[in-house]
Design brief:
The chain is mainly alpha-helical. It has 20 helices and 6 strands. About 0% of the residues have low confidence.
């Protein structure tokens, strides 16, 4: 077997994963006092370099005019070619979205408040509430392992978008998931809640991985191939599949494994608990990056694998989409915690995007597919920047005890009363993000919803689009409720404070706010860039 790798094209992955390896070595050899500075510099430099290389690869592919370029493939003795990773418009645009989201997230992750504390435990291995933990906190210890872990997760997300066979897809899934399980358990405050969230995430993630693997095994049994386009190739050769029922069951199970990652109902149970318990910077990173990577992988599966079993998948997806939109909307209306509110908001958004995903059917409606793919990419970009910005603001709104000491994040909605007076900048930025989530014009969220709903109508899913529009109007209720609390309710004493920080979170919030407005006011720049290869 002859294995070939296009090293130049795989350079963005090598930069990010290589920086993760170097960061791990830094934990062993760099003096403790210098580790944080080294890790922050290394991480931001690696992500910025990866973004530059992704843009460069984009220009190269446009010049070459190639649609799909294999990055890693194996030529077997019988002459067949197995493709592991590919480079195409979908992978490059999605990698750019993931890296942009990661850059903003790393600024929030690296930031420290005026108390000189970050969002992460001084030593994650210590028992919550123990004397050892208090001693580490008193000494000002910093948990710098989070940076290489987050880099590995970012690399897994990038590989996830390029994976072209089920085995590579599974490996990428685990590379992005395992670091997130650990990161979810590293909160500085509310350690037990954080560890509980990580355990739930790990257990449910293990179930989803098992379902995904079982689906891959069934697909292999039906087609004799692990390639994402294996079913289409088998039909094209006229050989058919060994068992259509086996293939349908396998594809459904693979889709379920990916639906878990996007937080679609009824596979959403982990989302509110993990969003609430994980360190808030990790929540923003996870919400932006993992959702983008999983939706791109799901989109590729629908483009290449679902066509032979479209009728079975379509019925299943209608049930999932309706359940996701309804649960995300109804449960969001009754939340009193900001992080859980944003969690159910993300579930509702997943339902909206799934409408466009389900409209992808190359055989029966190629025009709808050409509209759906760029619409999904634009929605993911708008959602990613707004989500990182919103969680960045949550990190700066803190509780305060009667003695004036700064405590943990004030996540109760009532605690945000009067934020418009305490910090007009943060309240205004949060309003921009909430308006984008609600799909109000002049924000990126409005354009994103318009595009995915348009794709749904062209794909023959007008009923789902009408439901989504009604649900979007309902979700606006809990977004505007938070806006009303921030600007039109007096603060309740001095139990809440907006803390100052080193400034990295503010930079991320400002960039996210400007981008959100830019995507709404001047969307054609991003839309033309994204839609170019699909025109």
């Amino acid at each position: 077997m002859n294995v070939q790798i296009q090293w130049v094209a795989v350079l963005p992955l090598l930069i990010v994963l290589g920086a993760g390896v170097v960061g791990t070595l830094c934990e062993a050899f760099v003096p403790r006092r210098a580790r944080r500075g080294v890790q922050v510099t290394l991480s931001l430099a690696a992500l910025a370099s990866a973004l530059v290389v992704v843009v460069w690869r984009w220009t190269e592919t446009q010049v070459d005019g190639s649609k799909v370029q294999p990055l890693a493939f194996a030529v077997h003795p019988d002459g067949t070619v197995g493709v592991g990773l590919v480079e195409d418009a979908i992978s490059l645009i999605s990698q750019a979205i993931i890296v942009v989201g990661a850059l903003l997230s790393f600024l929030v992750i690296a930031d420290r408040t005026q108390t000189r504390e970050g969002a992460f435990a001084a030593a994650a291995a210590t028992r919550p509430g123990s004397a050892e933990e208090r001693e580490y906190s008193r000494l000002g210890r910093q948990l710098t392992e989070i940076f290489p872990l987050a880099l590995f997760a970012t690399g897994g997300m990038m590989a996830f978008t390029s994976a072209y066979d089920l085995l590579t897809l599974f490996i990428s899934l685990e590379v992005l998931s395992l670091p997130l399980y650990v990161l979810s358990a590293t909160a500085r405050r509310k350690r037990l809640l954080s560890q509980e969230a990580a355990l739930k995430y790990f257990i449910l993630g293990a179930f989803s991985s098992a379902i995904f693997l079982m689906g891959a095994a069934l697909i292999y049994g039906a087609t004799g191939s692990l390639s994402i386009e294996g079913p289409i190739i088998a039909l094209g050769r006229g050989t058919g599949v060994a068992s259509p029922a086996l293939l349908s069951a396998g594809v459904v199970m693979v889709v379920i494994g990916l639906l878990f990652k996007v937080g679609a109902a009824p596979f959403h149970a982990w989302t509110p608990d993990v969003y609430q318990g994980a360190p808030t910077p990790v929540t923003g990173f996870m919400a932006a990056g993992t959702k983008a990577a999983a939706f791109v992988a799901l989109m590729r599966v629908f483009i290449l694998m679902v066509t032979p079993v479209w009728e079975s998948i379509n019925i299943f997806m209608w049930i999932v989409i309706i359940a996701t939109i309804v649960i995300g909307t109804v449960m969001g209306l009754v939340q009193t915690d900001v992080k859980r509110l944003l969690a159910y908001s993300s579930i509702a958004h997943a339902g909206f995007i799934l409408i466009a995903v389900n409209s992808i059917n190359i055989v029966s409606n190629a025009d709808a597919s050409l509209v759906a793919v760029p619409a999904i990419m634009f929605y993911l970009l708008a959602y990613a920047v707004a989500t990182v910005g919103a969680f960045g603001i949550v990190t700066l709104v803190r509780e305060r005890d009667p003695q004036g000491n700064i405590l943990g994040e004030a996540t109760k909605l009532s605690s945000w009363a009067g934020l418009g007076k305490r910090s007009p900048l943060l309240a205004s930025a949060m309003t921009i993000f909430l308006l984008s989530f609600a799909g109000i014009p002049l924000t990126g969220g409005f354009i994103g919803k318009f595009e995915v709903f348009r794709a749904g109508v062209q794909g023959g899913m007008t009923v789902l689009v009408v439901l989504a529009v009604l649900a979007s109007a309902a979700t606006a209720v809990f977004y505007f409720r938070l806006v009303q609390i921030m600007f039109f309710r007096e603060p309740e004493g001095e139990s809440v404070a907006v803390v100052e920080s080193e400034g990295m979170s503010i930079v991320a919030i400002v960039i996210a706010a400007i981008t959100t407005i830019g995507l709404g006011v001047l969307p054609h720049f991003a839309l033309d860039f994204i839609m170019g290869p699909f025109a």
